[in-house]
Amino acid sequence: MDQRISLITLGVGDLDRSRAFYERLGWTRSMKAAPSVAFFQAGGMVLSLYPRADLARDAGIDPRGQGFGGVALAYNTRTRAEVDAVLAEAVAAGAKLLKPGHDAFWGGYFGFFADPDGFVWEVAWNPGFVIAADGGVTLPD
To answer: Which of 6, 72, 121, 122 has the most other CB atoms within 10 Å of its CB?
Structure first.
């Protein structure tokens, strides 16, 4: 198996609400002809929104999971100031601010928001990460 992630799918409670949230963040939907799923190209990977009950049925699991699932999505910024700007943009689009931007013990700056379905996003500036023009992150050795 190659070391890569191609697509992340979020099981959402209301597809139209979630799609509209990500569009308010400025994300552009791809493959609009597929009405039962929303795809967003995110650099070299894809974020997909799909009804939670349908995703659970496809996987053969109970859709009633509750609480924190131990996963956070992350958006890395090119500057420290961009962390606060992205958090504010997310809140204006309908996100819940979980933790405002603050200094990290590792030398960076970060905060958290939750999208309308409660999916946790970390917004972080890490001075050691190089971010390419397409948003791809290159880790230091």
So the answer is: 121
Classified as helix, coil or strand, 83 is helix
Q: Give residue 139's pLDDT.
A: 78
CB 74 within 8 A of CB 121: yes
Question: For 115-140, what is each residue's pLDDT tens digit?
Answer: 999 899 999 999 988 888 888 888 78
Distance CA 15, CA 35 (A): 10
Q: What is the largest CA-CA distance in the chain?
A: 46
Strand pairing class (73-76; 120-125): parallel
| Contact partners, residue 3, CB within 8 Å, separation at least 6 | none
Burial of 132 (C-beta count, 10 Å sphere; 0-12/13-18/19+): exposed
Mind listing the pLDDT tens digit for each residue in 35-71?
899 999 988 889 999 999 999 888 888 888 777 777 8
Q: Tokens for 75, please give them.
A: 């958006």
Domains of the chain: 1-59 (3.10.180.10), 71-128 (3.10.180.10)
The gap from C-alpha 132 to its chain's centroid, in whole angstroms, comes to 18
